[in-house]
Amino acid sequence: MVPVLIIGVSASGCSAAIYCSRRGIQPLLVGVDFGGEMALSGEVGNYPGFGTTNGIELVRKFSNHIKAYDIEPELGVRITSLRQVENGFAAQGWKWSPEHVVSYEAKAIIIATGTRPRELGVPGEKEFRGKGLSYCTVCDGPLFKNKITVTIGGGNSANESGLMLADITSHAYVITKNQAMKGDTLLIERLKNHPKATIVTNAFTTKIIGADFISAVEYKDATSGEIKTIDAQGVFVHIGMLANTDFVMPELERAPQGEIIADSLCKTNIPGIFAAGDVTNFPYRQLGIASGQGIAAALSCVDYLNKLQ
Predict the structure, then answer these.
(1) Band (300; pLDDT cuts 50, 70, 90)
(2) 128: number of CA atoms within 13 Å, CB side?
(3) Helix/strand/coil (H/E/C) assignment for every residue in 151-200
(4) Per the CATH hierarchy, to which homologous superfamily does domain 119-237 belong?
(5) What pLDDT sits at residue 284?
(6) How far apart are CA 60 and CA 65, in angstroms?
(7) Which of 89, 132, 80, 131 is nearest to 108 (CA)?
(8) pLDDT, tens digit, 9 for 90 and up, residues 197-237
(9) Whole-model pTM over 0.85
(10) Structural domain spans, the chain
């Protein structure tokens, strides 16, 4: 049984691992991949001390930092269940494939599993995923050079997607069901003023159209009630995220949308389980906040482990 199992290898999980190690507790750090949604961030200009950087560069620096503390994350691990056992907790899952079952036992758990993209739930979405439809503009946007794209969403991730695609494509549409785009005022103004970007408001996406690949997006104009289409070769969905908490035990308190309820010290309602970053019910989703919560979770966890001795 290890002292602490940290589930999730991104900003909060890596920060927690570093602080556990600095306090003399070597953590076991596991996760599906390194970086999570952080790795998919485009331009990052609000992470203190870094000026302007990007998600890939941040991931590289996080990786180098944990290596300096002899922390080697176990990647390819998807945890599918978590339960209490005598003197701690047991986590079970698989590594790289469901056939390769893995299990871990730890005195304490830090959950830092982050979030995943929310789906639209409209006809054509599942059929055209990977055939012109993507949830990651940073990953797939460059594939649509000189083509027409549609970003669906109304917040900062949609604003960033629209701006990136406007620089790459022949034209980038951003459609939102809201009356106006929300988020960072500077981003919205840049998007509005970009010569190759068009914002379409009051637009409820109804269908993704195509044959072998996407050819258009259908939406309902909430003002007129008309069904309209935009011809496009690429669609990027940015309508929010869902917390990765499917594996936690039912006794662990969660918000209606699945986020783990944690206090200011990142403690949950179950002693010995801590949560940090976007997976929690903290209302703001920022890399800096995730890192800070990872640190808080680690320090709370160390205090908890010290009291067990």
Answers:
(1) very high
(2) 28
(3) EECCCHHHHHHHHHHHHHCCEEEEECCCCCCCCCHHHHHHHHHCCCEEEE
(4) FAD/NAD(P)-binding domain (3.50.50.60)
(5) 86
(6) 9
(7) 89
(8) 999 999 999 999 999 999 999 999 999 999 999 999 999 99
(9) no
(10) 2-116+241-308, 119-237
